[in-house]
Design goal:
4-stranded antiparallel beta sheet; Hypothetical Protein Tm1070, Chain: A; elongated; 7-stranded antiparallel beta sheet; mainly beta
């Protein structure tokens, strides 16, 4: 009976080790930051659009993190969800375009370049997969919107999430209107 108990404990320890090892694969050393990953295009993804006249549009800046630095300088890849929420109960808003920028300020891609209307209280998301670290630790979105005067301000937030061997990380950023 003691041999069976010891054997089961050994199996449990091996199982825990394998699970911890698999979860630990999500972190990468700093040297891998230059590695480029190919990503499957999101259905909302559009090639980088030509600059539009945005002088009459509302603009919201949203900071995001496609990776963060953790202990010993390792990189933890983050999945990013950008959530655009029409907070008005009566009026529509129009997402004219959403631009995604890297830490260096380089425009990486545009979403909804053909425009997208959101009905009252409707939301739309943009998702960046955790292995797409091209944006870096200082990535950001600029959301271009149009809506009628008297419409409630649009709420735009980002949620970043990941997990490591022993921890899960989830945090958010709220967008700020800019000129």
């Amino acid at each position: 009976m003691k041999k069976i108990k010891l054997f089961l404990q050994l199996i449990l320890v091996l199982f825990i080790f394998v699970v911890a090892f698999q979860l630990g694969k999500n972190t990468k050393p700093i040297s891998s930051i230059e590695t480029k990953y190919s990503t499957k295009q999101d259905s909302a993804f559009e090639p980088i659009a030509e600059e539009m006249d945005s002088s009459d549009l509302k603009k919201i800046y949203v900071p995001v993190y496609s990776h963060i630095y953790v202990s010993k300088g390792d990189i933890l890849e983050m999945a990013v969800t950008l959530s655009i929420r029409n907070t008005d109960r009566k009026n529509k808003i129009k997402i004219e375009r959403v631009d995604y920028f890297s830490t260096n300020g380089k425009k990486l891609r545009s979403y909804f370049a053909k425009g997208l209307e959101l009905s009252a209280l409707e939301s739309k998301e943009v998702f960046i997969k955790d292995f797409d670290t091209e944006g870096g630790s200082g990535a950001n979105f600029i959301v271009y919107l149009s809506y009628d005067e008297g419409t409630n301000p649009t709420l735009v937030e980002s949620i970043m999430s990941s997990r490591s061997t022993t921890n899960s990380f989830v945090f958010s950023s709220r967008g700020e209107y800019i000129k």
